Amino acid sequence: MPAIEIFDPMRPDVLKDPYPAYRALRRHRPVAELEPLGIWVVSRYADAQRVLGDPEGFSAALAFGKDATLLDDRGPVRRQLNLKFAGDAGGVVSSSDGEVHARLRRTVARLLSKPRLDVVEPAIGAHAHGVIAALAARGEHVDIVGDLAKPVAAQSIGALMELPDNVVRVLAGWADLTARALDPGDELSSVAAGPRVMRSNLASFRAVTAFLNAAARAAPGGPSGTAGSGLAGSWREADTPAAREEVILAVLQLFQAGYETIVSAVCHLMAAFVIDRPRPPGFPSGPDLSGALIEEGLRLASPVRATLRTAVGPRTVGDVQVPAGARLMVLIGSANRDERVFEEPGTALAGRRPAHLAFGAGPHRCLGRMLAHTELRYIVGALATAGAQVSSVAGARVSANILKAGYEYLPVRVAWR
Ligand code: HEM
Fold first, then answer.
1. How buried is residue 262: exposed, middle or buried, by Cβ count under 10 Å (0-12/13-18/19+)?
2. pLDDT for the residue numbered 348
3. Do you know which PROSITE patterns this protein is assigned to (predicted)?
């Protein structure tokens, strides 16, 4: 059977619950081309790990660089999903290879280091508690997405980069819009919507540039990275258009990486372990989510459900020959439910080995893991502490983004303590 008949990433109904299709792919077509989309899927754990762990064989720069789009001419509406996250001159950590990647990763790693997180953690806790206190004062009906996860995720990543509220608002709007543009059921994914998406990109570029100019003026002198977020210093030292683009893109990428993933993870953890549900056996009870439970939640519903790589030459993945230039969609959400590796893959079990791939693998492995755990503990823990009972309400809507798993709307009823 053609692989696209098993898993069609341009079908919103498949994306809303991809797990049956993932299972069938793993079984029948673990590495396969999705014709006519011109993209390959990799669905088993071992193959996903191999691709992500071999940066010389599989390029992130090519996969997310110039011309990285997914075009679908099959329906009445022409869809063009823009997968590019790279500047015309400057590089981005997730979309670069080799030495450029190593250099960019060092800079971002400083921003997400333990000492920096220790400084920002009280602000994250305060945001989470403040938002939850305001919700408790408002009443029992809460939308986990819009009322809780988005505001706290945006404020947290904003605090990390010292962004003012007006810039946080612009970037949150931009991140929401670009997420919709990667949903093949949304009007923003059509070729015709391209100019609207472009305008949002430009607005976010302008907002970040204005912020960096103001930050550099306010804190003149001193090398980058020595105080605060270090972004003002990096901006001052950027003396070419390419270097300036690099700093702007770093802010944009960090915002996007740290916003959508957290919103998705909060919703999935709430849905799996808090709403209507007792804690699964084997995990500590109580309102706080343990690190192990968070990890298992991320395995079960991986917020980054897929990432991309391009084969730089003919390569073998599993038993399949992949030609040079093949674009591979590595299905992390599928790999994390691979029954070859995880017994009862759809069930939460304590003490799983080996490690899941929700944070990726190899040299591009997520730099925001520590921040993610901190935020998730605060957001989900604070709500669970403040609400004696969180119960479901009809009407939840799952989103259909091709790269991220998440909710558009997750209504609950909270009986506040
Ligand atoms: C539960 C939350 C999160 C999940 C599941 C997640 C997942 C991932 C995955 C799968 C990758 C690798 C992508 C690839 O190989 O192409 C990645 C990379 C990355 N993540 Fe996260 N992430 C999360 C939260 C965060 C946060 C809060 C930040 C901080 C702002 C962040 C920053 C990054 C960065 C900078 C990279 C690129 C690393 C590189 O290319 O070297 N992530 N993340």
1. buried
2. 92
3. CYTOCHROME_P450
Tokens of 297: 């939640």
pLDDT of residue 226: 43
How many separate domains does the chain show? 1
pLDDT at residue 68, rounded to an integer: 92
Residue identified by tokens 């003919």 is: 314
- 360: alpha, beta or left? (left if phi > 0; alpha if psi -120 to 50): left
Nearest CA to ligand 1 atom 25: 368
Structure tokens, 6: 């098993």
The DSSP secondary structure of 361-412, one letter per residue, reads -GGG--S-HHHHHHHHHHHHHHHHHHEEEEEE-S--EE---SSB--EEE-EE
CA dihedral 147→151→156→157, nearest 10 degrees, is 130
CA of 224 to the centre of ligand 1 (A): 23
Contact (CB, 8 A) for 190 and 77: yes
Taking only Cα atoms into account, the Rg of the chain, rounded to an integer number of angstroms, comes to: 21
Residues of the chain with pLDDT under 70: 220-227, 286-287
Mutate to test the pocket of ligand 1, among 83, 156, 249, 261 (most ligand atoms within 8 A of CB): 261
**Residue 326 sits in a domain of what CATH number?**
1.10.630.10
3-state class (DSSP) for residue 280: coil
CB 328 within 8 A of CB 34: no
Q: What is the pLDDT of residues 28-46, one digit of tens each?
A: 999 999 999 999 999 999 9
DSSP string of 290-333, one letter each residue: PHHHHHHHHHHT-SB--EEEEESS-EEETTEEE-TT-EEEE-HH
The helix, strand and coil proportions of the chain, stated in percent and rounded to the nearest 5, come to: 50, 15, 35
The whole domain housing 361 covers 3-416
Ligand 1: centre distance to CA 394 (Å): 32
Find the 302 Cα to ligand 1 centroid distance in Å: 12
Cα of 257 vs centre of ligand 1, distance in Å, is: 6
